[in-house]
Amino acid sequence: MHIAIAGNIGSGKTTLTSLLSKQFNWEAHYEDVDDNPYLNDFYDDMQRWSFNLQVYFLNSRFNQVLEIRKSGKTVIQDRTIYEDAYIFAPNLHAMGLMTTRDFENYSELFQLMSSLVKPPELLIYLRSTVPTLVNQIQRRGRKYENTIRLDYLKRLNERYEAWISKYDLGKILIVDVDKNNFIENTEDLSGVIDKINAELHGLF
Predict the structure, then answer these.
(1) 2-201 has which fold?
(2) Tens digit of pLDDT for each residue in 24-39?
(3) Is residue 95 a contact partner of residue 155, using CB atoms and an 8 Å limit?
(4) What percentage of the chain exceeds 90 in pLDDT?
């Protein structure tokens, strides 16, 4: 089974992936951030590196999904292949940070790749307001994220909501991060776990 966690930068995807992996004994697949050769350059000069970064992420996540399906295990994935195509790339294009030529090229590549993979059985979407995102981004202290602008996070949030409102590829569970502090509160985490069990096994 393939479970995936979607959400904006700083919404808690990696932390929840780790917590659920331990709770359910699922194999965790994390976003390729530490070894990504484009991230630092991208945050220094988004216009120059946007296409390179998006293609790198697309390739990385496509390979992840192929590995997940081949493994025969239950896997939880930190961020989906769909978020790059429906949120990050169109946002960069709309902001004038990716040319129309590059965006169309990227979109065709995504359509081909997405036609070759199955969507997750359950998508967990972490909904969060911008102030909560900013607090969590500052707390983890990644140097390259210091330059992320508030309007960039706001635009991404709007695109996430638009995508989630039309998502119909499988089951979906929405977790309100402002009201569920699963990182520090074990009761909130237990509540999320109960909802996941209900979605996967029809309990309650």
Answers:
(1) Rossmann fold (3.40.50)
(2) 999 999 887 677 899 8
(3) yes
(4) 69
Residue 121 tokens read as 């059985």
In 3D, which of 20, 1, 27, 5 has the Cα closest to residue 172? Answer: 5
| Cα maximum dimension of the chain | 51
Give this prediction's pTM: 0.89
Residue whose structure tokens are 């502090």: 181
In 3D, which of 186, 189, 133 has the Cα closest to residue 156?
133
Which of 32, 45, 78, 194 is catalytic? The answer is 78
DSSP of the chain: -EEEEEE-TTSSHHHHHHHHHHHHTPEEE----TT-SSHHHHHH-HHHHHHHHHHHHHHHHHHHHHHHHHH-S-EEEES-HHHIIIIIHHHHHHTTSS-HHHHHHHHHHHHHHHTTSPPPSEEEEEE--HHHHHHHHHHHT-GGGTT--HHHHHHHHHHHHHHHHH--SSEEEEEETTT--TTT-HHHHHHHHHHHHHHHH---
Domain ranges for the chain: 2-201
Which is higher by pLDDT, 182 or 172?
172
Q: What is the C-alpha R_g of the chain?
A: 17
The answer to whether 45 is a known catalytic residue is no
- What's the confidence (pLDDT) of residue 150? 85
54 contacts 90 by C-beta, under 8 angstroms: no
Torsion angle of C-alpha atoms 86, 22, 28, 41, degrees rounded to 10: 70
